[in-house]
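Quick one: co-fold with magnesium ion.
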Amino acid sequence: MSGQVVVVTSGKGGVGKTTVVANIGTGLALSGQKVVLVDADIGLRNLDVVMGLENRILYDIVDVVEGRTEVRKALIRDKRVEGLSLLPASQTRDKTAVTEEQMKCLCDSLKEEFDYVLIDCPAGIEQGFQNAVAGADGAIIVSIPEVSALRDADKVVGLLEGAGLTDPYLVVNRIRMDMVRRGDMLDVSDMTDILGRQVRLLGIVPDDQSIIVSTNRGEPAVLDPKSRAGQAFRNIVRRLLGEEVEFMDLNEGGLVARLMKLVGLAK
Amino acid sequence: MEVGSMEFRGTKSGLLLRAHVGSDIRGFIDRLKQRLSKSRGFFSGSSVKAQFEDKEIPVESVRLIVETLRECGLELSSIATSARPRRVSRSGIAEEDGLPAVGPDECVSVLVKRTLRSGQRVDFGGSVVVLGDVNPGAEVIAGGDVVVMGSLRGMAHAGAYGDTGAVVVAFRLNPTQLRIANRISRSPDTVRTDPSHPEIARISEDAIVIEAFSVPASGR
Ligand SMILES: Nc1ncnc2c1ncn2[C@@H]1O[C@H](COP(=O)(O)OP(=O)(O)O)[C@@H](O)[C@H]1O
Ligand SMILES: [Mg+2]
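Sure, here it is.
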């Protein structure tokens, strides 16, 4: 079997890469795919925390590439979802602990066993980024509706192109429709305009407090049927699996819309 | 022609400099100075057309060559480079006949068939045509004109070695900064939406002005 290796990257830090990896990964596993999440943010390990698996770590990615253990023994099985595993980053080493060659090797062996290998990329465009993309077959770029994040995303599209990853997906995270409407935030179309047609829009995730709650609990929002961000991630997963799913109407859940519905002004 | 070599020749239309600069621009400049000092001002006051065997020459190198020639009393009137760039005549038809001397009405151009993204840069001695967008954070620097068949939202510098007649044309002209020769204009600090029609930037009365671009009436 040969699965696909997908790197999740952004250039800018703090835009939601780890959140996207945790939620898309969990969603794919819920849909019956065999998934492994690889935390390539070496030195700033946190995918394990977001997944609520920190207390089960025995070995990390550096132990694997340096041959101290087999990959199989370093993988942590998720406690809730079948078919979902995590390969944690090392917290005590840094980005230079892994080479591009080793990363490629690791990805090649993981995709023998899994349908999806999702790589959580560190921020920046230096060695850590190069390592994270080394073994990838595809890429998901995460950006938020801010000019500086978009600038970095654009730069990353160029760099991915150089690495042979020519048609990346885009996830726009943390959108706030009230701000977009007031013209205080970039619109999704402003973003896809700059990035160009080569970049495919995979999903739009609203800014949602349930993400913060779920992150602290170690339960990806995609598991929570009431979470709007979770719904956006469920849609993203279905699109990744080839289904055509309409983009969520982010206005619908707004207070005004709900009030209008209540008083019968809208259906 | 050997890398680093040069040759001056007199032609009907003036002096012709043929050269293959290579990567060692410093060494090339030194040899150019030697060569010119040997001729003891014989060429002084003439205008020179330059033909380079190089595929592309960075603008900075062109600037050094222009300065060196000027120190010896020579004015560079046109420049041509080899290979991919094509000679485009006023009729708009590409001519692929190697390296003829080019007049002021013609120029050598390079075609960039992609979008330039943040952090990417094209630097070319002749004119640059981009078949795509120039995004914020990207730069196009040209000795000649800059033409963008898409949105220009980054930085463009036309006439980078002093040609005040150079222009910047874009389908959507909305740059963060525009430079023509040694003039600079930046975008207004307020947000400007992309214009909806092609525009041209040129120098007029010492400042960069932007106007709607319309196709000039044909000569026929
Ligand atoms: N859609 C969202 N709504 C609200 N908060 C979010 C959302 N996505 C991410 N966050 C928060 O933003 C912070 C950074 O997210 P994270 O996934 O760690 O980013 P990165 O991995 O790119 O550095 C976290 O505190 C996370 O909870
Ligand atoms: Mg992270």
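If it helps, Chain A is about 40% helix and 15% strand.
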